[in-house]
Amino acid sequence: MFVYILQCNDGTLYTGWTTNLNRRVAEHNAGRGARYTRSRRPVKLVYHETHPDRRRAMQREAAIKKLPRAGKLALISSFSAHINKSGKEFSR
Description:
Layout: E1 2-7, E2 13-18, H1 21-29, H2 35-38, E3 44-50, H3 54-66, H4 69-86
Antiparallel strand pairs: 1-2, 1-3
């Protein structure tokens, strides 16, 4: 299971969870994702982490959604810094 954050075309952030990250991002960009992202395409995946089961993924999604924008940006920044440092993307 994945928890992810998308950056929408208007700069807003969308948080969700899925079992298939690539498929879900493609759905968002095709207008078949959440209503929120349909009018804010294209979206860009800026953060993701893995979880062992649906319950934990949903709990983490709820926790991230409660964060202020600055908290979400801090998650994204630390994720991006790690990718840049290692030279490749990873799942947490």
